[in-house]
Structure formats: C-alpha cells, structure tokens
Design goal:
80% of the residues lie in helices and 0% in strands. The chain is an all-alpha fold and 382 residues long. The protein has a single domain, classed as Growth Hormone, Chain: A. It is globular, with a radius of gyration of 19 Å. The two termini are 22 Å apart. Mean pLDDT is 82; it is low at 1-6 and 189-195.
Length: 382
C-alpha cells in the first residue's frame, strides 16, 4: 500500500464513514419507511415486499456503474451527483400518495444512495487498515439505525411517511457539506482500474465471493423488509416494536466493534462461518407468534452477526483482488440480493403467515457460506 493511502487524513476517513451512512439511508430506514407507508398508503403484505425491493434495486444498478467509474472521475463530482439523485428521489416521494407512483421516486433515491455508498466504501478500501475502517463505518450505520428505529412511533401515524422523507432529505443536505473532505481522486489510475466484463469472468474466485455477498443479502432483504410486519402480527404496539428493534440494533453494534478489535486474527472464513451459524439460530427463533422478549433476542442475535459478517465480506473480496475494483462492486451485489430477497418472500407471504421469510433467509445463509467457502478455500485464506 502506498504512502498516499496510509497518510489519508482522519477528516477524510470520518467523512467517508458518514457518507456510507447517508448512502445506505434507504436501506437502513427500511422498516420505518415501510411501516409509515403501510399506514399512509394501506399496503398489502405483498406490496410491502415490492416497495422494500424498490428501496434497494436502484442502488444495485448504480453500484455496478460506480464500480467502473470510481477510479476514472473526480470523486467530489461523483459524490455531489449521487447526493443530488438521492435527494431528488426523497423529495419526489413526498408529493405522491399512491403505491404505484411512489415506486419510481424510491428507486431513484436508491440509485443515488448506492452510488454514494460505493464511492465512500472505495475511499475506505484504499487505507491499509481497511478491515477496521469497514467495522467503524458499519458501527456508524448501526448508530444511525438505532436513532431511526427509536423514531418509528412518530412516523407510524397519518402523514408520517412525508415527515420521514423530509428527515432523509435533510440528511442528504448534510452530506453535501462533507464531500469536500474526501480525497479528490483515486490513488489508482484509470488505466490500472479499467475492468471489462471478460476480466470479471476471468476472476472466478472473486466472482464466487461477490455471489456470496449477493446471496447473503437475499437473507437480509427478506428479514429487514418484513421485520416490522413480524412485530406487528405478533401484537406489539408501535412503541414496544420501536424499542425492541432499536434495542436489538444497539446490541448489534458490538458485532461491528468486534471486527475492529479482532481484525485479521482468524482470517475471513472462520468469522463468516460463525456469523452464518449465529444468524441461522436467530432466523429459527423468529417464529410467529413471538413474545417481545423472544423478538428482541432473535433480532439482536441476527443483527450482531450481520454486522460482524459485513467487514469480513468486504475484506474477503479485497484480499482475493487487491486492486479495489471488486470491493467497489460489493455493494452492488449486496443491493441486488437485498432487492431480490423481499420479492421472493412477497411471492409466498400472506396477511397471517410470514414463514416464507424464515425459509428464504435460512436457505440464503447456507448458500452464501458455501460460496464464500469455495472462494476462500481455493485461495487457502482461512
């Protein structure tokens, strides 16, 4: 790693971490957005999954594009364009009032958010302590999740969706004040970074790891889109649900902080295996009907190992291909999986039964670990 990367300023690293939070806002706030949308728009259970998918599908496309552009263009310009797109999507969503008309604005906000997240993640990946920085970034996202989830009772009322969207719009404005703190351009030249589709296919180990990221987020997308419905169908009040979700997420911050402390001590595969086992336990526990205690414990376990796993997923991809190109593409694969998960679950859920969510999540977890195992075992990275 060159001196430019290692001497990256603390302000740049903190700004990049904050921008990952803003870029992930659509996904991070999904339970609150969907809960508010159910109240304001009268969504069915299937429509919840479709709307949840729109909150991620745009970021999948933009993250793929960003992976090809991030080393070619001025980073400040890319960040401003991404923030503008995200803000425009949130604003447009405030002036529509039907399920069909709100899908495109949410998709557009997701488009900008995905690009911003990928750019900020690339900035962090250029640092020699990228695993720890990924962990700190995830911790910042978790802290924001707690704040958003604690606000849920105020948004699950008539008109609450518009207020929620104005809050997210304000977050984009704050992001605009942070962009100038980022490095102006990549440490890697465009010629070094150029990546064709053929080159992607010629890196089967990296592709397996990226597919592992995608399938892992099929599980995340299914659970995250329906977690509010799981609580509501269990009979929890909005306040109880909000506190249980926020408490579970707050506990989970220990997962990302554990990666900061642990670093590369056990490689990547062992932590990924532990995360898979822990999340399977949590998914099995999420059975309707649940007590509030069972809901809290299962959600806390799920989030702990979710956040613990993420840094090692990024690190595994980066270790297989050190150019940083595939790390920039990782959010795209996460977003594709997250967008597909709610759609798969939506095809099978009913107004009274959400067992399809558990089945989709459990199968995706097992498939994801198998893909990571194949990718990392071939590299003898354990």
């Amino acid at each position: 790693m060159d001196h430019a990367a290692s001497s990256m300023s603390l302000k740049s690293l903190l700004a990049a971490s904050c921008l990952t939070v803003i870029g992930a806002a659509c996904f991070v706030a999904t339970p609150v957005i969907l809960g508010a949308a159910v109240g304001d728009l009268g969504l069915s259970e299937a429509q919840v999954g479709i709307l949840g998918s729109s909150l991620l599908s745009g970021s999948a496309i933009s993250a793929v594009i960003t992976a090809f552009l991030v080393r070619r263009f001025h980073w400040h310009l890319l960040a401003y364009v991404a923030l503008l797109a995200e803000a425009m999507g949130f604003f447009a969503a405030t002036v529509v009032d039907t399920f069909s008309s709100i899908l495109l604005p949410f998709w557009f906000a997701s488009l900008g958010g995905g690009a911003l997240y990928s750019l900020a993640l690339t900035v962090l990946s250029d640092h020699p302590q990228s695993v720890r920085l990924f962990g700190l970034s995830i911790s910042a996202q978790v802290f924001f999740q707690v704040l958003v989830l604690l606000s849920m009772p105020w948004f699950m009322v008539p008109g609450g969706l518009t207020d929620c969207l104005y809050g997210l719009l304000g977050l984009c404005l704050i992001g605009g004040l942070l962009v100038h703190l980022l490095p102006k351009q990549s440490r890697i030249s465009a010629d070094q970074e150029t990546m064709s589709a053929t080159e992607v296919l010629n890196q089967p180990k990296a592709l397996l790891a990226l597919l592992g990221c995608l399938v892992f987020f099929v599980n995340i997308g299914a659970v995250w889109a329906y977690v509010e419905r799981l609580g509501t169908l269990s009979g929890f009040t909005p306040v109880d649900l909000s506190q249980a979700l926020a408490g579970g997420v707050a506990v989970s911050i220990l997962g990302s902080l554990t990666t900061v402390w642990q670093g590369n001590r056990y490689g990547d595969l062992v932590p990924l295996g532990c995360a898979t086992a822990g999340m399977l336990v949590a998914v099995v526990m999420m059975q309707l009907p649940m007590s509030i205690g069972q809901f809290f414990v299962s959600f806390a376990i799920f989030n702990f190992f979710w956040n613990y796993s993420l840094a090692y997923q990024y690190a595994a991809v980066a270790r297989i291909d050190a150019s940083g190109r595939y790390v920039a593409a990782t959010p795209a694969f996460h977003s594709i999986g997250g967008a597909v998960g709610p759609l798969i679950a939506a095809a099978f859920v009913t107004s009274e039964q959400l067992i399809a969510v558990n089945m989709v999540a459990g199968f995706a977890l097992l498939m994801s670990f198998m893909l990571f195992y194949l990718a990392l075992r071939q590299r003898h990275i354990i």
